[in-house]
UniProtKB/TrEMBL annotation:
Domain (Anti-sigma-28 factor FlgM C-terminal) ranges: 31-85
Record key words, sorted: Cell projection, Cilium, Flagellum
Protein name as annotated: Flagellar biosynthesis anti-sigma factor FlgM
Matches recorded under InterPro entries: Anti-sigma-28_factor_FlgM_sf, FlgM_C
Species this protein is from: Candidatus Galacturonatibacter soehngenii
Entries under SUPFAM superfamilies matching the protein: Anti-sigma factor FlgM
Length: 92
């Protein structure tokens, strides 16, 4: 009987003992965050827009009063002109 073979095989199975825990040393890095000037300008503009009222109550109430009193007359040419002007402002 070959005892040497048995010892080699036994040695393979017994060598699976856990060794000590290895600690990884990681050097700490300093993170740096830079915000572009464009992003800062965008943030300021967004804040300014959020502080403005969505609806101009004075203008709405004037138009409502004119409509109620049937004094609100707008021609098709005036309306079309305003629509085109608004479109041009958005596109250019």
């Amino acid at each position: 009987m070959r005892i040497e073979s048995y010892h080699k095989i036994n040695k393979l199975y017994t060598s699976d003992k856990t060794s000590g825990v290895k600690q990884n040393t990681v050097s700490s890095k300093n993170d740096k965050l830079e915000i572009s000037q464009t992003a800062l300008d965008y943030q300021i503009a967004k804040k300014a827009v959020s502080e403005i009222e969505d609806v101009r109550e004075e203008l709405v109430s004037k138009v409502k009063n004119k409509i109620d009193s049937k004094n609100y007359n707008v021609t098709a040419d005036e309306f079309a002109s305003k629509v085109i002007d608004s479109y041009n402002k958005l596109m250019f």
